[in-house]
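Teaching assistant's notes for section 4

Start the section by putting this record on the projector. Ask students to predict, before seeing the second block, whether Protein kinase domain-containing protein will look compact or extended. Collect guesses on the board.
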Amino acid sequence: MMMGGGSFKLFICVLLVPYFACFASGFTPADMYLIDCGSPTNTTVGDRVFMADNLASQLLSTPENILANNTSANSATSSGDSALYQTARIFTATTKYTFSISQRGRHWIRLYFYPFVYRNYNLSLANFSVSTPNYVLLGNFNPAGLSFKEFSVNVTSSTLEITMTPFKNSFAYLNALEVVSVPDILITDDAASVNPPGSFQGLMRQALETVHRVNMGGPTVSFENDTLWRTWIPDQSYLVQVNLADNVSNIASVKYPAGGATIDIAPPSVYGTAAKMRSENDPTSNFNVTWEFTVDPGFQYLVRFHFCDIVSKSPNQLYFNVYINSWNVVPNLDLSTRTLGILATAYYMDFVMASADSSKLRVSIGPSPVNNAYPNAILNGLEIMKMNNSAGSLSKVASVPSSSRPGSKKNVGVIAGVSIGASVAVVMAVILFFLHRRRKMERLRQSKTWIPLSINGGTSHTMGSKYSNGTTVSAGSNLSYRCPFAAVQEATNNFDESWVIGIGGFGKVYKGVLNDGTKVAVKRGNPRSQQGLAEFRTEIEMLSQFRHRHLVSLIGYCDEKNEMILIYEYMENGTLKGHLYGLGLASLSWKERLEICIGAARGLHYLHTGYAKAVIHRDVKSANILLDENLMAKVADFGLSKTGPEIDQTHVSTAVKGSFGYLDPEYFRRQQLTEKSDVYSFGVVLFEVLCARPVIDPSLPREMVNLAEWAMKWQKKGQLEQIIDANLAGKIRPDSLRKFGETAEKCLADFGVDRPSVGDVLWNLEYALQLQEAVLHNDPDENSTNVIGDLSPLVNDYNHVDVVSDAQFEMSSADDLSGVSMSRVFSQLVKSEGR
Ligand SMILES: *[C@@H]1O[C@H](CO)[C@@H](O)[C@H](O)[C@H]1NC(C)=O
Ligand SMILES: *[C@@H]1O[C@H](CO)[C@@H](O)[C@H](O)[C@H]1NC(C)=O
Ligand SMILES: *[C@@H]1O[C@H](CO)[C@@H](O)[C@H](O)[C@H]1NC(C)=O
Ligand SMILES: *[C@@H]1O[C@H](CO)[C@@H](O)[C@H](O)[C@H]1NC(C)=O
Ligand SMILES: *[C@@H]1O[C@H](CO)[C@@H](O)[C@H](O)[C@H]1NC(C)=O
Ligand SMILES: *[C@@H]1O[C@H](CO)[C@@H](O)[C@H](O)[C@H]1NC(C)=O
Ligand SMILES: *[C@@H]1O[C@H](CO)[C@@H](O)[C@H](O)[C@H]1NC(C)=O
Ligand SMILES: *[C@@H]1O[C@H](CO)[C@@H](O)[C@H](O)[C@H]1NC(C)=O
Ligand SMILES: *[C@@H]1O[C@H](CO)[C@@H](O)[C@H](O)[C@H]1NC(C)=O
Ligand SMILES: *[C@@H]1O[C@H](CO)[C@@H](O)[C@H](O)[C@H]1NC(C)=O
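Reveal the predicted structure now:
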């Protein structure tokens, strides 16, 4: 039975979630030092044990400090860690902790302070700095009340030193201390920059201090419920107008598909609750929900938004704007396009705010009028992290005064005592155990790291006479060239917003004109696009290898300044989708539609067979079929393409990618990619072309929502004509429609092996075109011949059959076609031409 329905796919998706989640959850830190300073015994908090202070004394440069206690901190916090605040170590001289680091990378440094009175020490009077060799974490610090500070720094050597420096006539203290590895994926090097708009690079060198970590629309999420022991506090106290926001919650629905956010980015209890606009009773609602945070002016901040669409019933229903202060940092955000149409998927975005003079930072969400969406907006979580200034300081104090530099160094380097050794051994075992997982994370991280591209055999060409000596920028070349950023700027009138011709998940597409007058389409990658960099590289690699009349040509690319810009030939008539519905363009005739389908099939056929290894497009849809000035079809967007099938066999690619409504259900089930997945998607396109409606239309009655399901229902009844585009009514010859419908039906076969190759599809479409032109309509053979039906049993043994080569059909590598099937179709065509 046919199983290609949207509901079915969603169901599969839900089934897959636990599988993804068990890969994504839990992180075991390579380094983990937890010290309950001043405590004579180990202290258990949640499932962690903070070691007694004497066990940590080997880490200290001057162990002979004062150990203080006072039970007045008994009820200092309600979160189960108040025991940590009851004891402290008092440092009367500069003292250094030295931690041995087994795995370089970012580490949390968490400091706990509670100012109680012990004998003649009133901790409220302490005044000190805390620093690492490269960064000042706290300067002139005087914790007046309970204070918990969280920092993270990238440790690039085998030790991490943390120095406590009391100021003149004062002292320092610490109630508890954590040094713990952070998963590499948590903070990557890049973010979008807010002011000026662009991209920010270099987060890995930043020391960060968490200043706000908020769970929108929900309660406190305590460290026990967070894989990285973070605490998320409720947003109510930050809301500027509490009455504009509502809480929503659906924690069970949160999904973490492979390749996206993991449970370590934020737990389900954060993604599963949200604040939303209180707009349900008023469809004309037009206001922002705003939160206001106190920040230290003069510093840059990393702002991380956590989103998860737990409110929509179907994709493409929720559009909203996201603001930081007065900057609209994400206009018209449609989360479903960022998460492959799968709702309730965890998704986050990072922004760097340049230093502001104000001590207030505002974050707002508000409705977007695009697509007449119902006004609504959501936010699930928010983190605001302070970045070190150019002096390497997170405090106004630029550096620790030299007069109070570390004095005694006698115990530096004595690190691994017996008890520490034991815990290190445990940690080592755990590291080995989780090595596999860490490799996986490493891959994820690497996929976001920029590696300069080397295509065309490693030579990188430069174009643009104005920018370097050499050739002029020109579309005439056969190779794609690295293009100077300045040339792209000029071609697009400096990315003039009014020249935008499209917006996709990858970024904006601009119209442009090169200095030789050639029109081009310039796709500028959004640096925060999750799939961004990998797709950028794939696209360049694929398009540099393939040249075909029915594939969109890449003219150049630009990777300067961490830009991800692709320059294509300009396709005057836009997308096939735009000509089918939505844009109100003149309706295409049946003949034009058939010719477009034939052109696209040729492009795909070339991809599948024109190269030593088959290339699977993976995102075949009407929006990726472009039309030139003569309505000739070209296949575009190779960002998701894979060469197959070996990649498949190693199961590297298990993440299901593609577009909702076009996805091959078998690919979903088995996570294995073949050319037949493209055939499935192309079958959906064929029905789309015939019916001129979106493949998923949630506004329709339940049984009509999914086009593939709906069209197959009518096709099976033999009444496809009931649902065709009204503009085509009475204009398609029944034989042509029947042939077309059968072809599409075969493409949507449940199992890949039962689907025809694109080559077969191509021939059948040619045939449907011939039938439309009426040359065959009296052929006595025609009614009894089901070309596709006869072909499919042969699909598997076509490989070594000699084939009629026919330049007209551009069979550059025709061995994908069955000689039998081909000659059979061919004979019919020959017959038709004879008349
Ligand atoms: C305290 O914790 C350390 C490791 O953190 C462990 O080696 C030691 O056995 C513990 N001591 C007690 C008394 O539980
Ligand atoms: C607190 O410190 C005193 C010595 O100053 C010691 O006798 C007592 O046992 C300590 N209490 C706790 C709970 O650590
Ligand atoms: C404990 O601290 C409180 C205030 O923080 C103080 O009033 C009390 O005297 C202290 N107790 C001791 C034994 O120092
Ligand atoms: C400790 O210092 C704080 C701040 O100066 C002061 O308010 C408090 O009274 C002092 N406590 C004692 C016991 O001296
Ligand atoms: C801390 O010490 C520094 C340097 O001696 C001084 O400038 C600052 O005012 C002190 N802060 C407090 C709160 O005592
Ligand atoms: C830490 O810094 C080093 C060198 O600057 C870099 O190679 C590494 O990727 C960074 N790690 C993280 C997690 O940022
Ligand atoms: C949202 O939840 C918080 C507690 O988590 C509560 O204080 C607040 O009143 C709720 N807001 C609404 C509008 O229900
Ligand atoms: C963790 O989350 C669960 C479910 O939301 C909740 O029942 C539990 O109380 C939470 N635990 C803590 C310590 O917050
Ligand atoms: C939302 O906030 C932004 C930034 O402050 C502002 O430009 C916009 O006009 C606000 N929208 C509404 C509806 O108030
Ligand atoms: C933070 O410190 C690092 C290392 O000292 C430095 O490279 C970086 O530029 C600093 N950040 C800023 C915003 O100045």
